[in-house]
Write a structure and sequence with these properties.
11 helices, mainly alpha, about 260 residues, single chain
C-alpha cells in the first residue's frame, strides 16, 4: 500500500506544482510556491487518510495535526507576501537569465514536490503501517512535541510580523520575545513539530519515518533555511552581525553578554 499512497501523493503534488509553475510564468513570480509548501503536506495527509490502511485513529490524528499546521503556515506566508517577486527568487532569476523559466520548473517547483514527499515519510508511515498498533506513549509524546513546535513557530511569526509593522523598526534587527533567545525560533518550532510527527510514524512501527524530519532538519540548517537567510541578512543589515555574536543560531538559549 505504501507505493500506492506515495505514488498518488507524488503525482498529485507534481500536477499541482505544474499548474502553479505555469501561473508563476504568467506572473513572473516564482515565489508563489512558498505559500503552497504547507498545503502540499495537507494534501499528502488527506491522501494517506483516504487510501491508507494504517490505524484509523493515527491517520486521523496526523490529518488533523498536519492540516492545522499547513493552514496556519500557508496563510501566514500568503498574508506577508509583498508586491512582486521575493528577493531570493529574483536573484535566481537574474543569475539564470533566459533559462530561468524551465530551470524554475525543475529546481523550484518540481524539486519542492519531491522534497515534500520525502519529508512527509512520517505521514506515509502513519497512513500505511501499524494497523494493529493502537495509539500509545510515542503518539502522545509526538503530539505533545508537535504542539510545542506549533506554538513556538506561531508565536515567533506573530512577534516578527508585529515588529515589521512598527515604523520605528525599519532597518532594525528583531531581538525581542523568542527572537532574543534564538535567531530563528520559527525554524526551531518547525523542527520540533516535524520530529513530533516523526514520533507518530515511529509509533506506527516505521523507523524509516524519521528520515523525513532528518531531511527537514538538514534543509533548515544547511540549505534553504538558516544558512540562506543569514547570508542575506548580513548583507542588508549591519546590526545583524552584533545580533549573531550574542544570540543562539537555532536552539533557544540565554543571550551572551
Amino acid at each position: 500500500m505504501l507505493p500506492t499512497v506515495a505514488t498518488i501523493s507524488l503525482l498529485t503534488l507534481l500536477c499541482a506544482m505544474f499548474v502553479l509553475w505555469l501561473v508563476s510564468l504568467r506572473l513572473r513570480d516564482a515565489s508563489i510556491v512558498d505559500p503552497f509548501w504547507g498545503l502540499a503536506f495537507a494534501i499528502i495527509a488527506a491522501i494517506g487518510y483516504g487510501l491508507g490502511h494504517g490505524r484509523p485513529e493515527r491517520r486521523l490524528l496526523v490529518l488533523v495535526l498536519v492540516t492545522l499546521w499547513a493552514v496556519r503556515l500557508s496563510g501566514y506566508l500568503l498574508l506577508r507576501r509583498g508586491h512582486g517577486e521575493d528577493h531570493r527568487y529574483a536573484a535566481m532569476r537574474q543569475r539564470h537569465g533566459a533559462r530561468f523559466w524551465w530551470w524554475s520548473g525543475l529546481m523550484v517547483f518540481g524539486l519542492q514536490a519531491c522534497l515534500a514527499l520525502v519529508v512527509s515519510l512520517p505521514l506515509l508511515a502513519a497512513a500505511t503501517r501499524g494497523a494493529t498498533r493502537p495509539l500509545g506513549l510515542l503518539d502522545v509524546a509526538g503530539a505533545g512535541l508537535w504542539l510545542a513546535g506549533l506554538l513556538c513557530e506561531a508565536i515567533a511569526d506573530a512577534q516578527l510580523a508585529r515588529f515589521k509593522r512598527a515604523p520605528e523598526s525599519r532597518g532594525q534587527v528583531m531581538d525581542r520575545g523568542l527572537w532574543r533567545y534564538s535567531r530563528h525560533p520559527n525554524y526551531f518550532g518547525e523542527f520540533l513539530l516535524w520530529w513530533g510527527l516523526g514520533l507518530l510514524g515511529l509509533g506506527a512501527g516505521a523507523a524509516w519515518a524519521l528520515l523525513g524530519p532528518a531531511l527537514l532538519t538538514l534543509l533548515l540548517l544547511r540549505v534553504s533555511g538558516v544558512t540562506l537567510l543569514e547570508a542575506t541578512l548580513r548583507e542588508r543589515r549591519p546590526a545583524y552581525v552584533d545580533y549573531v555574536r550574542r544570540t543562539s543560531a537555532f536552539v533557544p538559549w540565554r543571550p551572551r553578554a
